[in-house]
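Protocol step 4 of 6: record predicted structures for both targets in the notebook before any analysis. Target 1:
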Amino acid sequence: MNASRLRTGSYFALPEILQKNMATNAAGSETVPYSYANKKVTLLFTFKVWMTWNAASSYQRNFDNFYMAVKRLDSDFDAIILTECWLNEGTILEPIPGYSVSRTNEQLNKNGGIVIYTKSRYNITTLEHTVADADSILLTIDKKLALLGIYRSPSYANIDNFTSSLDTALLEIKSIPTIILAGDLNIDLCNTTNHRHTEYLCLLASHGLLPAITEPTREHTCLDHIFIKSHHESIGVIGKCSITDHDMVMASISQKNNYKDCTKTRWRLKTDDDAVAAAIGPQDTGIA
């Protein structure tokens, strides 16, 4: 994927209900009008559930606030990802009209679990993917798009097992042309001095996945990620809100491939040795 096709980490203006404690982007990245993101065909929305005491007081307790936020955004999201949901066997998945819902059935921690809503019109295949030291779920759409949702707890300081397992998981879906990896990874993309940051980015880049979000999503850290592999133009946006201590991160992939009609030009380099020698002229090397 051409890096120029992916615009990263821009902030956009949210409706009033979500503007509480709105912060400006200290890094000075471009402000993207929401109408711009709304023109894209595939809009991904990763939402960190407000952490409280148990499952009943996180995903379920805060669902009404979350649903109101989605309605106020007034956009036709193709997929909505909720991470760190405090799921258990008794958790009731709330319906959203027009969407199908999937979840992880096993969680590594009591605060873990992922819930993904996808448009009902899509033919979804769901696989609770095993990525070491993380909760993960893989959704595929007609073998044309793969959506990998991940929640990685900060309690795992060493990422070696995670990255090795993630490498294997990505190899298994390498034939799928469009891949979106999204979730709360608890790896700070803003901390460029940490080797974990470099190893993680290099691994994903080796699979053609580039970051759509590179600005802070929680205080001064970028912990909530969206990585995209696609031949189409993509954009990532970040929105601050008061519902959760993490920012909302979104990404979209345009329906039209703006690059597929570009004319390919073959270049051949030829050197005129005589002209080069004449231009340089006799040289005194100083060697006797």
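Target 2:
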Amino acid sequence: MKKALESQKESAQQLMDMIEPKGTLLDIRA
């Protein structure tokens, strides 16, 4: 189950990376 959650998180992160520029992504996280 933990692996599935991590995989889902990675997929979401990849989508965010494609949609948002790195700078904006860092601003959201901060």
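Step 5 preliminary note on target 2. The chain has a mean pLDDT of 76. The chain is about 85% helix and 0% strand.
Proceed to step 6 after PI sign-off.
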